[in-house]
What we know:
alpha+beta; 34% helix; 25% strand
Amino acid sequence: MKFTVHQIQIDRSVxxxxxxxxxxxxxxxxxxxxxxxxxxxxxxxxxxxxYSQYYKPVCTIEADNLNRVFDIGNIGPExxxxxxxxxxxxxxxxIIEDEQGVxxxxxxxxxxEIQ
Length: 115
């Protein structure tokens, strides 16, 4: 099966603001940073539907299931990954979409289906 990995990509200029303003002030100014902060640390517990606009597809991965997608996205093999944009290793808060369009957010333990 082919899965698409979606991640929130934070621009370098936003990180510069984080360094200048601090996390909370930057999160108030940049909603994409708020989405990143909420989901990176809390996964599905802090995910909101409006955050979906900040996720971008970064790769597709050929795998049998979500656990294998996670493994491949972190340790390879690289030939199972088709990169669409710069990406980081798969972690809490990232979204994995299957071929039927079902989306799961990576949680602290496992995955949770999201709408």
